[in-house]
Design goal:
This protein is α/β, with parallel strands linked by helices. Helices cover 44% and strands 15% of the residues. The chain has a seven-stranded mixed sheet with strand order 1-7-6-2-5-3-4, sandwiched between helices. Helix 1 packs antiparallel against helix 2 and helix 5 crosses helix 6.
Length: 257
Amino acid sequence: MLAIFRGARLISHLFTGIALVLLVTLDPTRRIAREPLTRWWNSRLLKILNIHLRVHGQPLAGAQMIVCNHISWVDIPVIAASELTRFVSKVEVASWPIAGWLSNAAGSFYIRRGAGGTKQLIQALAAHLRGGGSATVFPEGTTTDGDRMLKFQPRLFAAAIDSGCPVQPIALRYSRAANGENIAAFVGEQTLTNNLNRLLKEREMTVELTYCAPIQPQVGQDRTALAQAAHAAICAVVAPGSLPAQQDGEQRESLAA
């Protein structure tokens, strides 16, 4: 019964989202700010799913590249409900019904395959950051169960270096069900419908969002080193065991300093 009630509210909320998509898309002035609408819509989505947000640390104001560990599709509404930001996603999402419409209206950036695709994306991200915007990237490139982290792909960190904007690492951790099941993780052979159905049946869930210390890139800095620093900061919160031995030692020294 709980899942049916929430499902009905979710469907109604999706129609609200589609109305907002039309509002932004058909706005002749192009002056409607996308980020506040995105934040409001995703905050309501978390309430419908009864996902409680616990925030640790101090958020960074102004232009920034947010990087985050990736566990679930829910990561996106969690970050969107917390920050006025735009997201980087795979280009296939742009053509999806509903999810793609919402993503396009929110001003998402897309990773396109083929020669020059990444270069164009980095240029677009850097321009957005230089203009005072915020962009969110999931550098692992795929989801995990949250107990470990994959290596961060360093390419998009070039946008932070080119724009001179700080990198804000954010660590996410989800609570588990009473039976210990990892409900939030969107991994393996799950479909979005299957994962969403599990979330609708769960009475409540908590997600901890930790703002790690921001990292200010230096002119000419190696993007790989910047990616490793952000990875180590998040690992120290969610999955210390994922840190390579050398990075783990460096991180411990940094925390002790």
